[in-house]
Each structure stands twice: as structure tokens, then as C-alpha cells.
Write a structure and sequence with these properties.
The complex is a heterotrimer of chains A (458), B (379) and C (451).
Chain A (H helix, E strand, L loop, with lengths): L5 E5 L12 E3 L3 E9 L5 E11 L2 E8 L5 E10 L6 E7 L7 E8 L3 E11 L2 E11 L5 E12 L5 E10 L8 H5 L21 H13 L4 H12 L10 E6 L2 E6 L3 E3 L4 E13 L1 E6 L1 H4 L3 E8 L14 E8 L6 E9 L7 E9 L2 E17 L5 E16 L5 E8 L5 E5 L7 E4 L2 E8 L4 E13 L6
Parallel strand pairs in A: 3-12, 10-19, 17-24
Antiparallel strand pairs in A: 1-2, 1-5, 3-4, 4-9, 5-8, 6-9, 7-8, 10-11, 11-16, 12-14, 12-15, 13-14, 17-18, 18-21, 19-20, 22-23, 23-28, 24-27, 25-28, 26-27
Chain B lengths: L10 E6 L6 H4 L9 E7 L6 E11 L2 E9 L10 E4 L6 E8 L5 E8 L3 E11 L2 E11 L5 E12 L5 E7 L6 E5 L3 E14 L1 E7 L16 E8 L14 E8 L5 E9 L7 E9 L2 E17 L5 E16 L5 E8 L4 E6 L3 E5 L2 E8 L4 E14 L1
Parallel strand pairs in B: 2-11, 9-16, 14-21
Antiparallel strand pairs in B: 1-4, 2-3, 3-8, 4-7, 5-8, 6-7, 9-10, 10-13, 11-12, 14-15, 15-18, 16-17, 19-20, 20-25, 21-24, 22-25, 23-24
Chain C lengths: L8 E5 L16 E9 L5 E11 L2 E8 L5 E10 L6 E8 L6 E8 L3 E11 L2 E11 L5 E12 L5 E10 L1 E2 L5 H5 L21 H16 L15 E6 L2 E6 L3 E3 L4 E13 L1 E6 L1 H4 L3 E8 L14 E8 L6 E9 L7 E9 L2 E17 L5 E16 L5 E8 L5 E6 L4 E6 L2 E8 L4 E13 L6
Parallel strand pairs in C: 2-11, 9-19, 17-24
Antiparallel strand pairs in C: 1-4, 2-3, 3-8, 4-7, 5-8, 6-7, 9-10, 10-16, 11-14, 11-15, 13-14, 17-18, 18-21, 19-20, 22-23, 23-28, 24-27, 25-28, 26-27
The chains are: A mainly beta (458), B mainly beta (379), C mainly beta (451).
Chain lengths: 458, 379, 451
């Protein structure tokens, strides 16, 4: 095996010291399953191997030099005859790094399938999306991908790959646990290092060294095997999505081989025509004095989606400009996890082709109140605003204008004919305006704010 | 022209079909190097340049691996797309692999049969873009300009393009080759004769009130106003932001440079204002002649709590030119106010800005007198 | 062009760029050059006409400008005939070559075609300069105007039509900086930094090299040649004035040339003296005042700003005395001019505070002062110790917004300048003294409320 994960099983007759002499079997990995998280640098690995046990006590040595395995997560379970096989202890021998020794008492002899599981760091995945708008921007083809990256130091061949969407709570970074001098530290130094696990850089350096040790022949052979079967048309692998507790589990159909250092992108879904809304927003407090473009749709059946949540990721949006499918690049937007039935608004950045220009046209104060000492204790301020809207695009757009009123007591009188506002919260209103292609509109309103004692009467 | 003779692409597309090669080995032993066919450089997005190139792959039946690598150029790997053009139902992209520490990716493509397949590869390439410049030549009477615009193509991407179709978001495309580190200027818009309006503008916030108090000349900014409409022989599309140089015919068969300005993006129907230079033949002297508190309200301790401020501002405008001039005057009055008297009509731009258009006869004078009260000033 | 090393060459190329230097077809010389030089910015518009031999179809023309200060983004080529059949398709700035442009021309005909090549360059400049000679009684002044043209552009311009622009153009990039960019339009993602004021050292060195070559060849030309007085034709264009120097001028790199612009024998002038503490301190400043109009034998064109050196004829033999110098700004037609000649001691203005009192106190209901008046009496003594009559202007600024003023002294005239400034104007005969007095009342606190 070219990898740094050596799995050696020794059948030991007298004791540990003789182990290195008297080795009996070297079992192969029969099957490996990777469950990769993206909210933390964490992957659960399960491998099954067949061990030849003798009746009585068996010692098994497991080593994982140059990997990023958390030794405290190691577990071994017999998959058959569980009542007759007792995994009594796991010992981390002194002076040896990255070695564990299982002490097993068996009532049976012969081949027994086992599952060995552990957590490792260095494997990761992320979602990535490509959107292609049709020329009139009413619909979008949305292609989702997952990209799996293997920097774990270990080559995983023909592995079942599963991805977890959701946030898990971990108290120790796996990469920190993998790099500790002693699996559980040593007494008196309680989690001191954890404060510093930002020093993941240290292990990265190790991870780089590991690559040198890769023996390529194994994979050359492995790939040769898989490609020998080719010849007929294949389709991209399906990704099966299912909910589990608070998470979503994506299982990639079939087996994948991801050598260390490589990344692989696989299609997750491909929806042809999602109805989208070209939404433009204006809110000075949030976006400054520019109009920000959003693409909006809903993760539901009406939008050909809604089966599963959509994991957060980066979406690159193109637009098809002609019949020959030539593209124009529209922009990109990172978004967070979208639950089923949730409305999505993808921020595509500031634009110049839809214009919103608010102008304060008039300001007055009135209704002064004075206390008995002649001091001002209340007044009103009346501001008249005119908001010019301009759609210079050849397609219809929707514009949302939020106005924050920096006062808690207020009243608005609309003077234009473009509809009224919607109250968003105590001091925010929103105007929603639909503009057809190249249309201009104007909103006029008068805002009265009540100050001091004048607010008491409102 | 033999421009492309010594060009060598740094973006490579190589193809290999393998039966017995590992991924790592396969990337070295390439079988075919498909030539780049039609290439499009799309410059419609001011921040990103999208390259589309078409190539023909010779596919084997079954699994094919296509290696796309680049060196010395900057490509956003997530932006790389492959579109199968000729047999999209029988040729499928299975997945993409990214080899370690390399600017490359490997597409796994499955084909139902051995065939030539046309594909289109798209990607965002950095350090290649365009600028827009304008040149206007005004007539002697300054009523119209000859208006044209150039496209400046700048390629510092590291990649040579022997021949590409260069597209903007409107207008005709250019068939052009452009090499790495090359800059090219192409005529892009020739509008012909475009009417202009010449505007002198004095702004009480930007200009000096009393030119006698300073030792340099105080000029009045002069703008040319060009309207982006079909009436002006424009109006087909928005005019992009860029640098404009304005010249004028001198009546002797030559021209002089009137000035230059950076103009903003001008949508259809909007005005483009080009600041060309300063006039020294219009002189504005503005002074505040009255400035006092009135309607004072005090509290019982005698402290002023509320008052109005009476102000009178006069602006003397002298025109030393042989021709009449229309001066746009911008005055700013802070807070809440009302005009008591004003000898010229004005337009309220916003709550605190008013604008006058004052005709000043040739070699004549005009005087603006504004008498206003700033109301309800709280102490 | 025979004296100078070839800094600008023009090559007709029929092949690709790489062959350009080998396979050149024609090297047309400049037929004529026109320079339009600005003084508000380091900027000159150069236009040259050349004859090109074009063939039908595609022609590549190479233009190079090493060691000059040309802005490559300003280059333009326009055919002067057959414009409809000659299409200038692109201007390419090839990679890894500096100061070189390549025009791709699609021609519908073959033969000699006159073209105009224009560009902007830095390094040429001009300034106005004036000499004034007062008559002994200082009532009139002879005013001579000159223009001085300086060529530091790196290029020799011979037999050029020279034109000067008076006026302030708006520019957003310094030509000297554009001329020295590594790439004509820079590279994507790089925004030009704040612009340096003057050319870099490199350009100056280039200029120096050019100059030494010239001197080495022993050329002394142009400015030392006998100079006939050339007329300068002045005309208004847009907001600017264009001065065209009659005939042709040769201005070699590194040289400058002074040309007379106008000469008016007797411009009536006024000796004006000003006093304003806030502006000039406690001293009197001398001004020479006249108007750019017909009454003053001027008024045909504006007078470009420049330095005036003023002398005075002291006797019949035209011996001169130096009176001072003044830098003045552009003077439009019909505008009053006041030339600041500096502080003098022979005119004296002495303000004296003669009396100060406070009165009309007001109190609030707690007995605290909340209003009062301050009354100040000033005596102003003005002395003319000179032999010639003078005018004196005295400005007084008040710190209070509410005030009134009472004057004593018969012939004192004053003018309200703005809310808190007045101006007194006095005319004094030779050796005359005048005194006047004024009382200024300022209102403070609540005393100001109703004023």
C-alpha cells in the first residue's frame, strides 16, 4: 500500500513486544464510506475489513502515520458474531506515534468482518452553482454542483461519498486532535493547546510533506481497472438527497476515487426553467446611494425546486444572448442555505441601468410647543420627497425602495399616483414599483415626524 | 498581416482517451491538441471579460478525458463552462477533476459513439478589458459637434488572441486579433452631427464669491450639454463613461483643443455634461448684504431658543463677451427658509438648492438680489 | 529636419510588424506643422501634414516618437482627400515596443494621399510678459506686451505655424504624464496615481541629450536670426483667445523665443493706494489702475495674465527709474485692472481710535446684563507725500452684524460693500493731507434684536 495508512494486524501469542515478529495477516480495505461535512473540517470514515481471528486473545495494531485522523475517534466493531467477540481495550503504546492497539477476546476463530470508523480532517466539500438566464431574463436554468476536495493525506479509492448539509457542533477541531502528541494529551495540560488550534497551519505543512510519500502505482492500477469497463455511454452520477435529523445527507451514486490533492466536481441537480424575478433594491442605509440587483425565486414546486434545501454556495450567473447559446456574464452571488419553500434573493451587486434618485424637495418645521419657562419641548418636521425611478433596461423590472425614518412617530401622505407604501417595521416603509421596459416613474410623498412632546399626541 | 504566425496560446486544451492510464499519467500523455476555432471576447460587463472559444474534440466511444490547463494567465476556475454544441443528447459531461497544485481541470465526457464533437468553453479571463473614449469637434458657433467614440481594447491577460470576435453590449462586433500586452484603438461610434448646448454655471458652494479677493483668475466653468436622444443623432444606447476630448474648428481649416472631461454613463434620454474649461469673460461677484436675526424667541432666562435669520444676497454678473450668455446659477440655502423677494425666477432643485437661468447681454450686466428668511433656527 | 536626429519617423509597411523595420516603402517628410500652445496647462496641439503613398487594400503605417513628450492616446490620422475611400480602421500599440503606433488603413485607391496627423504633446509653453513705462507725471504709461515661447518638447519644430491659446482649459490628465506611461492606456486594473506636476527626470534628460547634440553640431538658429516684427493676429474662439503669429517660426528643442504682441504708447493710468488692515496689515499698497477699454487705447482683446515690470521716465532724456513689478491675472475686455506694485511709505493712512464708550445697557429680570451698545470714534489721517495726485481707498471691516455709522468731515464718501464692510474713497492732490472722522455704534445682545 502506498498510502500512509498502514493497517497491520498481528496475531500475538505472548505479548506486545513480540508483535513485530509474529505477524499473521494483512487485511485489505473491503469497502470505505466517507461522510464529509462542510460546516466543520470533519469527515466520518467507515471502512470494513476482514480479520482472521483465533479463539482467545487477539491484538491488532492500527497505524496512521501522515494522516489527519483523530485517534480518539477510533472504533472497531465486529459485523458478525458480535456476542462472541469482545473488543476489550484500545491502547496507545508509549513512545510510538500514530499507533493504536486493540485487545480483542474472541470465542470464534476464522474470518470475521469488522467495521473500523474514525474521524479525519482534510476532506471538504462545497456547493457551487451555475445559473443561465434566458434572453428575456424571465427564466433561469440552475445547475448545482458539489465539489469534493481531498487534502487529507490519504487517497480514497472507490469510496462511497456522502455529504452532510447542516451545522454540527464540535468542540475540538479534528486537525488539532490529529496533531496532538498524545491522543488525549497528557495530565495537567488540559486543553491548553486548544486555545491555539488556529495553528492549523502547522499541520498543513505536514500535509504538504505527505504528498511526497505518495506511491502512484497503486492508483494507476486502480484507475486502469475502472476504465477498462468503459465503452458505453454513461450518464452523470445521481445524488440522492435525504433528510436526517437536522441535516441533509447527499449520497453520491456509485463509488468515487479522489486521490489526495485532487478535487472533483459532480453535478447535483439541473433544473431547466426556474421562473425568476428581476428585483432591484434601493436602501440608502444598507447599500448607499446605488441600486442593487437581485435575482429572486423560491425553493418550491412552482419553481421546479422544493424537494430539498439548497446548500449555500457561490452562484455564477450567465445570460444566454442568442440562439447559438452565446453567453454573457452577469455576475455572481454567494448565498446561504435555502430551506424548502424559502424565498431566495441573490445579490448581484450594484447596477447603473436602473436608477432611483430620491430628492428632498421641501423642509419645514411647525407646531412648536414651549414649556412654562419658554423652552422648546415639541415640534413637527415636514419633509417632502420626490423619488425618480428609471428603468433603462429593455425588460420589465421590479423595484423595492426602503425608506428608513429616523424617528419613531411619523405620518406619511402620498401625493403621487404610483401606489402606496407598506410598513416594514416601526420606522421603515417600503414602496414596491413595477416598471415596464424603459419606463420612468415618480414617487412623491410628504413625511411628517413628531418630536418631543408633539410625539405624545400621536 | 501575419499576426498570428508567432502566437502561441498559453491556454491549452488537450484531449486524451485512455484505456490503461491513471489520471496522473494521462495528464501528461495527451493524444490530441484540438485547435481553437471561433473565439469571442465579450466586453459587455465592465468588471469581467468573458471568453468563449469553440473547439472540435475527436471523441471515442465511452469515457474521454479532456484536460484544460492554463499558465501565466488568470482564470477564475469556477467560471469555466463547457457546452456541448453538436450532439448534446449523446455527449455528456460526467464530472470535473481538479489536479493538485496546477492551473488545470479534467473533464470526464461520455460519448455514445466515436465522433467529432464541437464544444464551447467559456471562462472569465482577468486583465483584458476595454475603455471608451470620445472625441467631439465643435463648430465655430458652438451649436453642434461632430461626435465619435473609440473603443480601446487592452489585453494584458497573458494570452494572445490571433483572431477573435470582440463584442460589446451593443453595436457591431469587431473581428480583431489582439496579442498579449497589446492595446488597440478602434472606431466604435460615429454619430455625425450632434447638437450641443453651451452652459456657463456658477455654484455658490464651489465658486469664489468675490474674485477681487483672490490673486488668480476666477473662471466660470463652461459645459457642453449633449442629449442622448435620436433627435441628437444618438439615443440608440446608453453612452458609457469615458474620457472625452472636445476640439473646435477655428475657421482656418484647423482646430484647437477646448478641453477634456471624464463623462459619466449616460442612459438614453439623459444629458451628458462635459466640462470643457473656464470662462474669464463672465465675472460673478456675490456678497451677503444683510445677515441678521429676527423673530427672536427667548426662554424666561433670556436665552434665545428660536429665531429666524434674515439674509440678503446680491450677485453681480458681468458679461465681457460680444455675445449674450445664459448663466446657470446654483444657490444653496440651508435648513428651512422662505423667499421674501427675488428679482429673478428660479427653479427649486431640492429643499436647499435653487437654480436660476440668467440672461446677461453682451458686454452688459445683471444683478440678482435674493432676500430670504431662514426660519425656525433652534438654539 | 537635416539638423536633428530622427526622433519621429513615419514608415509605410506592407508586411507584419516584425518586418516593418526592413520592408519600409516610403518615409514621407513633414510638409507643414502647426503648433497650438496653451499656457494654462502644459499642453500643445500639434498638427502636421504629410503625403503618403498608399496602395489599394490594406496598408500598415508605423509612427514612432521616441524621446518626445507626445501623448500616444491623442494620435489621430485623417486623410485630407478621398476621405470616403480611405478607412483608418485601427490604431494598434504593439506589445513590448515603446513609443510606437501602427495604423491599419484600408484604402480604396492607390497613390499619393495627403494626410493630417495630430497629437498632443507637452514641453512647449508660452507666457506673456509686459514692460510698462510711466510718464514723469505718472498719468500715462506706455505698455508693451510680449509673448515668449519655449520648446522643451524633445522635438525640433521648424517652419511651424505657431498659435497661442489664452484661456483656461479643463484637463483631467497631465500630458507629460500620459507621455510617460508604460502603456498608452495603462493596463487593466491599474488606476493612474495622483498625477505628478511636471515631467519626470527622464524627459528632462532626453531633452538635455537632444540639446547637446544640437549644440555639438554647432547650430545656432532661430532665436538669434534677425527678427522682423511679426504681427500677432488675435481672435476669440469659444472661451479662449487665439493668437496666431504671422508667418512661420522655427523653434528648436531647448530654445525659446520672445515676440512682441502689442505696443500702446500712452495708456491713461491712475495711481491708486489701498489700505485694509485685514488684508494688507498696517501698510498702504500701491496700485496702478486702468481699464482694458477703448478710452485707454486698449480693449480690442483681453490681456493675458503675466508679469509687468514698471519703469518711469525721469527726465527728457528718457532715463528710467524702476518702480516695481506686478503679476496680474487675465484681464477681460472692459475690465478694470489694478496692478499691485507693493507696499509704499510715501502715502500714509493712520486710523486712530479716539473714543470708546458703552451705553444703553439692558437687564433681564434677574438683573443680569443682556444687551448694550459700543460706540467708537475713529480719526483717519491720510497723507500724500508725493508730487503727483493719488487716489486712496480705505476699507473698514466690523466684527458685529448690527451697526450704524456717522461720518464727520465734509467730502467723505463711503460705500457699503457687504454686511459688515464699508469703503472710503479719497482723492488727494500732490502733497495734500486729509483727515476725517467717523463714529461706529455696534449693538450687542438684545440691543441687536430689533435692528
Amino acid at each position: 500500500m502506498k498510502v500512509k495508512l498502514f493497517f497491520l494486524v498481528f496475531l500475538l501469542v505472548p505479548g506486545v513486544s513480540l508483535a513485530k515478529v509474529d505477524l499473521v495477516t494483512l487485511p485489505q480495505r473491503d469497502h470505505v464510506q466517507l461522510t464529509i461535512y462542510n460546516s466543520a473540517d470533519l469527515t466520518l470514515i467507515k471502512e470494513s475489513r476482514s480479520l482472521t481471528l483465533k479463539e482467545g486473545f487477539n491484538d491488532l495494531q492500527f497505524s496512521w502515520v501522515n494522516t489527519l485522523i483523530d485517534p480518539t475517534s477510533l472504533e472497531m466493531l465486529p459485523l458478525a458474531n458480535a456476542d462472541q467477540i469482545d473488543v476489550q481495550s484500545l491502547t496507545y503504546p508509549p513512545l510510538l506515534k500514530n499507533v493504536g492497539l486493540w485487545h480483542i477476546r474472541s470465542s470464534v476463530s476464522g474470518q470475521v468482518p469488522f467495521e473500523i470508523s474514525y474521524l479525519t480532517s482534510g476532506l471538504s466539500w462545497r456547493a457551487f452553482y451555475l445559473g443561465t438566464l434566458d434572453p428575456d431574463e424571465q427564466e433561469m436554468r440552475l445547475q448545482g454542483f458539489v465539489r469534493v476536495q481531498n487534502n487529507s493525506g490519504e487517497d480514497y479509492e472507490k469510496a462511497q461519498v456522502r455529504l452532510i448539509v447542516g451545522t454540527v457542533h464540535v468542540i475540538d477541531q479534528i486537525s488539532f486532535l490529529a496533531n496532538r502528541q498524545h491522543p488525549y494529551g497528557s495530565p495537567g495540560i488540559i486543553n491548553f493547546e486548544r486555545e491555539h488550534w488556529g495553528g492549523g497551519e502547522d499541520y498543513d505543512a505536514d500535509a504538504l510533506d505527505m504528498k511526497d510519500a505518495i506511491d502512484e502505482t497503486f492508483y494507476a492500477l486502480a484507475d486502469a481497472e475502472s476504465f477498462r469497463e468503459e465503452g458505453e455511454m454513461r450518464t452523470p452520477k445521481k445524488i440522492i438527497k435525504e433528510g436526517l435529523s437536522e441535516y441533509f445527507l447527499y449520497t453520491i451514486e456509485g463509488r468515487e476515487t479522489v486521490p489526495n490533492g485532487w478535487a472533483k466536481r459532480m453535478p447535483s441537480f439541473d433544473v431547466e426553467k426556474i421562473p425568476v424575478v428581476n428585483l432591484y433594491k434601493y436602501e440608502e442605509e444598507r447599500y448607499g446611494s446605488q441600486v442593487v440587483r437581485f435575482l429572486s425565486f423560491k425553493n418550491d414546486e412552482d419553481h421546479q425546486l422544493g424537494e430539498t434545501p439548497i446548500p449555500g454556495g457561490m452562484l455564477k450567473v450567465f445570460r444566454q444572448v442568442d440562439q447559438e447559446k452565446h453567453l454573457s456574464y452577469e455576475g455572481q452571488s454567494g448565498f446561504k442555505y435555502i430551506p424548502v419553500d424559502e424565498e431566495v434573493e441573490l445579490n448581484m451587486g450594484g447596477v447603473q441601468n436602473v436608477i432611483v434618485e430620491p430628492t428632498l424637495m421641501d423642509y419645514q418645521s411647525a407646531n412648536y410647543m414651549f414649556d412654562r419657562y419658554g423652552n422648546i419641548i415639541g415640534w413637527d418636521e415636514i419633509r417632502e420627497y420626490k423619488i425618480k425611478l428609471k428603468n433603462t433596461r429593455p425588460i420589465p423590472v421590479k423595484v423595492e425602495i426602503k425608506r428608513n425614518i429616523h424617528n419613531s412617530k411619523w405620518a406619511i401622505q402620498n401625493q403621487g399616483d404610483v401606489g402606496t407604501y407598506e410598513k416594514i417595521d416601526a420606522d421603515t416603509v417600503q414602496y414596491t414599483i413595477h416598471l415596464t421596459e424603459r419606463e420612468n416613474k415618480e414617487i412623491v410623498y410628504a413625511l411628517t415626524t413628531f418630536h418631543g412632546r408633539r410625539a405624545d399626541y400621536q | 498581416m501575419k499576426k498570428n504566425m508567432y502566437l502561441k496560446s498559453v491556454i491549452m486544451l488537450s484531449m486524451f482517451c485512455f484505456l490503461s492510464l491513471s489520471v496522473a499519467e494521462a495528464r501528461i500523455k495527451l493524444v490530441a491538441l484540438p485547435k481553437r476555432a471561433d473565439t469571442i471576447i465579450r466586453l459587455d460587463n465592465p468588471q469581467f471579460t468573458l471568453i468563449e472559444e469553440e473547439r472540435v474534440l475527436t471523441l471515442q466511444q465511452g469515457l474521454n478525458k479532456v484536460d484544460f490547463s492554463w499558465n501565466g494567465v488568470s482564470i477564475d476556475p469556477d467560471s469555466i463552462r463547457i457546452d456541448i454544441l453538436s450532439h448534446s443528447d449523446q455527449v455528456t459531461l460526467l464530472n470535473v477533476s481538479y489536479p493538485p497544485n496546477e492551473n488545470a481541470l479534467v473533464w470526464e465526457i461520455s460519448s455514445a459513439g466515436a465522433r467529432e464533437e464541437k464544444i464551447r468553453v467559456s471562462y472569465l479571463l482577468s486583465n483584458i478589458d476595454r475603455l471608451i473614449t470620445y472625441k467631439s469637434v465643435a463648430d465655430k458657433a458652438e451649436t453642434q459637434v461632430n461626435f465619435k467614440s473609440h473603443l480601446i481594447l487592452r489585453n494584458f491577460s497573458g494570452e494572445d488572441f490571433a483572431n477573435a470576435k470582440v463584442l460589446l453590449d451593443y453595436g457591431e462586433s469587431f473581428e480583431e486579433g489582439i496579442r498579449h500586452e497589446e492595446t488597440k484603438q478602434l472606431l466604435f461610434l460615429k454619430a455625425g452631427t450632434v447638437p450641443i448646448e453651451k452652459v456657463w454655471q456658477w455654484d455658490s458652494k464651489k465658486q469664489i464669491w468675490d474674485p477681487e479677493e483672490v490673486d488668480q483668475n476666477v473662471g466660470i466653468p463652461v459645459h457642453y450639454r449633449i442629449t442622448n436622444t435620436t433627435d441628437s443623432n444618438l439615443g440608440q444606447n446608453a453612452l458609457w463613461n469615458g474620457k472625452m476630448r472636445v476640439f473646435q474648428l477655428d475657421g482656418h481649416g484647423s482646430t484647437i483643443l477646448l478641453g477634456e472631461d471624464a463623462v459619466d454613463l449616460t442612459p438614453v434620454g439623459e444629458d451628458m455634461e462635459v466640462y470643457i474649461g473656464d470662462s474669464r469673460d463672465l465675472v460673478v461677484t456675490q456678497r451677503k448684504m444683510v445677515d441678521k436675526q429676527t423673530n427672536i424667541r427667548r426662554n424666561t432666562s433670556g436665552r434665545v431658543v428660536l429665531y429666524d435669520n434674515e439674509e440678503q444676497v446680491t450677485a453681480k454678473i458681468e458679461n465681457f463677451k460680444d455675445t449674450n450668455a445664459k448663466l446657470k446659477m446654483v444657490q444653496h440655502i440651508p435648513g428651512e427658509w422662505d423667499m421674501h423677494s427675488c428679482n429673478f425666477e428660479y427653479k427649486k432643485e431640492n429643499a436647499n438648492t435653487i437654480e436660476f437661468e440668467i440672461d446677461v447681454p453682451a458686454q452688459g450686466k445683471a444683478e440678482l438680489v435674493m432676500h430670504y428668511f431662514r426660519r425656525n433656527i433652534r438654539n | 529636419m537635416k539638423w536633428i536626429p530622427l526622433v519621429m519617423c513615419f514608415v509605410l509597411v506592407s508586411g507584419g510588424i516584425c518586418e516593418a523595420k526592413v520592408d519600409l516603402v516610403s518615409l514621407p517628410s513633414r510638409d507643414s506643422v502647426q503648433l497650438t500652445i496653451y499656457n494654462s496647462a502644459d499642453l500643445t496641439l500639434a498638427k502636421e501634414s504629410r503625403s503618403l503613398t498608399l496602395k489599394e487594400g490594406f496598408n500598415d503605417l508605423q509612427f514612432s516618437w521616441a524621446n518626445t513628450l507626445i501623448d500616444p492616446t491623442s494620435l489621430e490620422l485623417v486623410p485630407l482627400t478621398n476621405a470616403d475611400r480611405i478607412d483608418v480602421q485601427a490604431l494598434t500599440y504593439p506589445p513590448r515596443v515603446k513609443n510606437l503606433g501602427l495604423w491599419n488603413i484600408d484604402s480604396g485607391l492607390s497613390g499619393q494621399i495627403p494626410v493630417e496627423i495630430s497629437y498632443l504633446t507637452s514641453g512647449l509653453s508660452w507666457r506673456a510678459f509686459y514692460l510698462g513705462t510711466l510718464t514723469p507725471d505718472e498719468k500715462e504709461m506706455r505698455l508693451k506686451g510680449y509673448v515668449r515661447v519655449l520648446n522643451n518638447s524633445g522635438e525640433d519644430y521648424e517652419n511651424a505655424q505657431v498659435r497661442l491659446i489664452v484661456g483656461k482649459v479643463h484637463i483631467i490628465d497631465q500630458i507629460a504624464q500620459l507621455a510617460q506611461r508604460q502603456y498608452p492606456y495603462e493596463r487593466p486594473g491599474i488606476y493612474p496615481a495622483a498625477q505628478p506636476e511636471v515631467h519626470s527626470k527622464r524627459s528632462r534628460q532626453d531633452v538635455r541629450v537632444m540639446k547637446s547634440v544640437m549644440m555639438g553640431e554647432g547650430i545656432a538658429f532661430g532665436s538669434v536670426a534677425p527678427m522682423e516684427t511679426k504681427e500677432i493676429i488675435k481672435e476669440g474662439l469659444s472661451e479662449y483667445f487665439l493668437y496666431t503669429i504671422e508667418g512661420r517660426e522655427t523653434i528648436l528643442n531647448g530654445w525659446s523665443k520672445r515676440l512682441p504682441s502689442f505696443d500702446v504708447a500712452s495708456v491713461p493710468v491712475v495711481n491708486l493706494y489701498k489700505y485694509e488692515e485685514e488684508r494688507y496689515g498696517y501698510q498702504v499698497i500701491r496700485f496702478l489702475s486702468f481699464k482694458n477699454d477703448e478710452d485707454h487705447l486698449l480693449g480690442e482683446t483681453p490681456i493675458p495674465g503675466g508679469l509687468l515690470k514698471v519703469f518711469r521716465n525721469v527726465d527728457a532724456e528718457n532715463h528710467l527709474s524702476y518702480e516695481g513689478q506686478s503679476e496680474f491675472k487675465y484681464i477681460p475686455i472692459d475690465e478694470d485692472v489694478e496692478l499691485n506694485l507693493g507696499a509704499v511709505q510715501n502715502i500714509v493712512v493712520e486710523p486712530k481710535l479716539m473714543n470708546l464708550k458703552t451705553e444703553n445697557f439692558m437687564f433681564d429680570r434677574h438683573g443680569n446684563i443682556n444687551g448694550w451698545d459700543e460706540v467708537r470714534t475713529y480719526k483717519m489721517e491720510v497723507k500724500n507725500t508725493r508730487q503727483v495726485p493719488v487716489e486712496v481707498e480705505i476699507k473698514r471691516n466690523f466684527n458685529a452684524l448690527k451697526w450704524d455709522i456717522h461720518n464727520e468731515g465734509a467730502e467723505v464718501k463711503y460705500e457699503k460693500i457687504d454686511a459688515n464692510t464699508v469703503k472710503y474713497k479719497l482723492a488727494l492732490q500732490s502733497k495734500e493731507n486729509k483727515t476725517f472722522q467717523y463714529t461706529l455704534r455696534t449693538f450687542h445682545g438684545r440691543r441687536g434684536d430689533h435692528k
